[in-house]
Amino acid sequence: MTDAAPGTTASGRPDDRVPSVLRFATEIVAWVATPWALSDRSWPLAVASVVLLIGLPTVFSTPGDKANVVVPVPGWVTVLLVLLQLAAAVVSSWIAWPVWAAVPVTVLAAVTCVTERRRWQWLLSGAGRDRRVV
Question: Nearest to residue 9, comparing CAs of 52, 67, 55?
Fold first, then answer.
């Protein structure tokens, strides 16, 4: 048994199983729609977008938010990386796809923003500070 508050993990991080699923679904859309939107202009740029959208959150993360941290960053950086993914998904879907496909992506991103609030508050409150994040 742990001393964690209801709705949080032992590290104090909010339990975000449902928000994680929505966040991951939006990330997948960003990984598909962004290179799709950029492929008409430049294949190298399309490939670079996928590398950045997948690579940045993989390399830079806040201690306590992920099990394995390659390069520790403050919580606000993690929030910005999520917002980058959400923006890429929405903007790219409107550029690359018809309205009937872009509208659900926009709704998914909006719902993700709402469900991410507790995690973002935790990240912005100084998550990982005690783990020497610069």
Answer: 67
How confident is the model over 31-43, as pLDDT tens digits? 999 999 999 999 9
Whole-structure pTM value: 0.84
Residue range 57-90, pLDDT digits in tens? 999 999 988 888 899 999 999 999 999 999 999 9
